[in-house]
Amino acid sequence: MRPMLILRSTGRDRDACSWRSLCPNRWQTHGGTSMKKTLIAGLAASTLVLTLAGVGPALADSGRHQPINGSIRVDRQLETEYPAMAKISIEQAMAAALNSAPGTVLSVELDDEDRFLVYEVKIVGADKTITTKVTVDAGDGRILATKRERAER
């Protein structure tokens, strides 16, 4: 037997709900479960499902950090030593990044990430709405990571 929902406790509902003294809250069902709780739980569950369905594909390209595995290890070197350690030039790193994400280079930085020497190349696309940060291995020019973001205003 399905529980009968009582949304209001008006005179018309008194015949349908003879147990009114046991259930003074107008948001109750005959099963005793609060309708508010049921609605909130249902909305929360459907929001979670929709969020995961829409965000799932974007997780691979969003804030989760993927470990970098480059070819030049940085242990205790100073940043001033990085240019001498790099085996490819800034121009070669920019060319590799532009092959991966076409657009205009905004900045290039020689840095260490996860204890490997990399070039971080920031590129803005032709439509000027998306920027892409491309991580290029400073040893062999491989693309190690790509992260797309909305352009800052």
TrEMBL record:
Q: What is this protein called?
A: PepSY domain-containing protein
Write the lineage as a comma-separated list.
Bacteria, Pseudomonadati, Thermodesulfobacteriota, Desulfobulbia, Desulfobulbales
Supply the source organism for this entry: Desulfobulbus oralis
**Per the database record, which ranges form the PepSY domain?**
87-146
Gene3D superfamilies assigned: 3.10.450.40
